[in-house]
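Practice problem: predict the structure.
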Amino acid sequence: MAGSFGPMTVSDVAKSHRDLCLLSSFIGQLREFEFLVSLLVPLTSVGCRSTMFFNPHNARLGREPSLPRFHRTTGAKSMKRFLCALSLGLVLVGLVQSQNRQPSGMPVPRLYVVTPAGAKAGSTVEITVGGFNIEDATQMVFSDPRLKAQLVAEPTEPPPVDPKTKKTNPAMGKPKATPSSVKFKVTIPGDISLGNHDLRVVTAWGVSNPRAFHIGDLNETNEVEPNNDIETSPNKPQRVELNTTVNATLNQPNDVDYYVFKAAKGQRVIVSVLSTSIDSRAQPAVEIYDAKNRQLGENLFYSVDDALLDVTAPEEGDYFIRIYQFTHTFRTALTGGLPPGTSDNQYRLSVSTAPWIDAVVPNVIQPGQTATVTIWGRNLPGGKLDPTAKLDNLILEKTTATITAPADGTGRLRFSGVVMPSGGLVDGFEYRTKNASGSSNPYLIGLARHPVVTEKGDNDTPEKAQPVTLPCEIAGVIEKRNDSDWYKFTAKKGETWNIQVISQRLGAPTFMTFALRNPKTKAEIYEAPLEPNTMAGYSRRFFRRTEDPYGYRFIVPEDGEYELMITSRAAGTMFGPRHTYAVRISKDDPDFRLVALGEEEYVPSAAVVPVGGSQAFNVIVEREGEFGGDIQLTVEGLPPGVTCPPQTLGGGVKETSLVISAAPGTAEWVGTVKIIGSAIIGGKKVTQEARAASIVWPVAPNGNTPTVTRIDRDIILAVKGKPIFVITPTIDKADLVQGDKATCKVKLDRPYAEAKGPVQVGVIQTQTRQGSELPVNLKFGGNNQPIAINAGQADGTFAVTVAADVPPGKYNVVFRASSQVPFSKDPMAKTKPPVTAIAISSPLTVNVLPKSLATLQVANATNAKIGQKTEVVVRVTRLYKFEGEFKVELVLPPGVAGISAATVTIPSGETEAKLMFDVPASAAPGARNNLTVKATAMWDGKVPTVHEQKINVNVVK
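Answer:
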């Protein structure tokens, strides 16, 4: 590269990058571990240069400092950051179980690339989509139906002329190449909502996974190569007008893209580089230089892999933007994906004077309520510089605004940016502001369930603890180095309060923790663990690891005042307006949230139901407030001929497979559906609509790496094609008591004439972790191994064993069949290579009944006096989260008289009742042996479960 940027010159920059490239061979070997951590550990501090931090929590509680922990950094210490990410990635990988499942080899469309990745509202643009099995795409569908797309046919050459016959002869032409991309002309309404919309393509074989299509309000252009240097013509910076978005690609690992824009003195220019937000694999770093060769700023990882930088022009003139791939190494090619490079390293560069929102406080508002909030950011309407608020050594602006939360927001997440699994099940809505240049970025605000209390004044010590009244939600900021915020509340003995911190799940770059203590004794009651929260991280397809701490259920030991300390594990180096948090302190609020994904475990997919066959969604639940009941799953919006049999997501599991079937003769169809879950909570029916999610990039089959997944904007279903197999399971006993055995028969039909080989059939759900999808000891076959249905056979059999420790409940069991079959998209092909064909069974319900729902204890049952009543305490220790009532009675053996007791009830949720033994005055003294205290509970409201304890009573005068 030519030219200089003193004091840091271009040659200095190039030398620095060459040094990094010397490490690229090593880094390239380990890249996928860094990739994993960049998605699972979004350590997104801007301008933070330290490579380690101590835990301020321990210092405040008078302890020795904890060992230093690494976090994401920028600049020269990136290698330390990488090695830390590597080690943490290895730990995380060990937490995830794998399954022996190969993805389908059938030609279902898989979409990876959209070029350009966005457009301006009110425009018409031609886009190219790339991926696998999309060459026969006929339709493009969007999450907003107002977006319209028309297929653009590729120009075709006329057939060649045979020199002998002087006539055209198509056979003499060149073999037709199979395209990996298709073009569409997209028309965008001017009044459409800004932000991400999902697009998919439809082929004869189904509908693809979604890809983000970002709609903005700035003028748009595309990158023009070559723009890899600063002075050498024609390889020179691409000039960009202010308030323009550039759709671009990092073509090679060492690609560097230069842009130049002109700014007036004092003008604050925002440079935003979207990557993760548009489903890209790029990790762009951005730098800005002035015309006097001075570097004015640098950034990467502002939010996941998106970058952000701003500059206030010190004088009128040209300013240069430099964008490159972090460490100059692309993530390695993915199994089932396109080669690394131009296919997957796109970015959207916006250079504007539009507003940018960095923080909003409070960051939660109750549904339907209006709140006055404080906003920090850049180019804010009415904003004024706040010298106390800095980000990357830049002073932010501060203003206030009035925001009304949607009244119908509970249970919903309305946000046009990218949402990763960690925040995928929070309730929230987006806020934007705008000025004459355009609209701001979307900012996610959470929905509170209780009155919001905003942090006020100096509350950095126990003596200055801010009083709050419960229940409430506290909204605060880790605003300065080593900041810790103290709050105090009063509570009564026996009350239960749930304490939950929500911060990183709302997009803040935080590492929150908290402690609860008794100020009277100065004793700590609870301290949140320092390790990351892997709660609900059981699903590799929706791995929800978060830096928000585990929640705590506080049972108040005595009347009095209690203190709560909130801080960040990284407060020594990471602080400022972006480090917002919300603390919910509430009674048990039983509820649930659902998310639904396609059945494929390793590759991006959508649900495609074959006509005459079945397909499944993977439905995951997050339970809240001690809710442990069954959830009934249904599907709304299905076309005629497509049904969803009644299926249950049992109270003892976190996820299940939801099967949808299409009857033979059903018309082909593509459309959106809604998956609805309903449960009885507190005697009332509660319903929630499942959120959509999908795998963004494939991972190697049967590995231990969680997938890269995001929240989608709708659930789409296609009814296309015909099944290769049809499998139908039946069981000889629908109700099984713990310890029972049964036989499950699987019928196999082969509608595809060439599917003659052996077929492997096994349970689709995971059984490697208790409470994931099926209990570990609910066995289908000896050790849950698949069975083989050989050529010429039409069925197979599983021996079903319900171990004594299998929790009672309804389990939705689904089978998956796979086989190698000869197949070609061209039915007239002379050769048909073997591909993996998959089939999903109809659902099978296994209802496990309990042998007992409690352990029974009878106290004070030794003596009973004649002519008096004796109180006997009957206690139950409940099992399996059973909350129903117990009917308690005394049963006498034949021939025994002179003692009785009226039936009593242990109420729902309670643990004891008093049985009154009544001995009449006429009773003869002496022993009454082998009396039975019987406690009967109704499982599922209809199955009596009896608990008995034998006692001996001595009747005395």
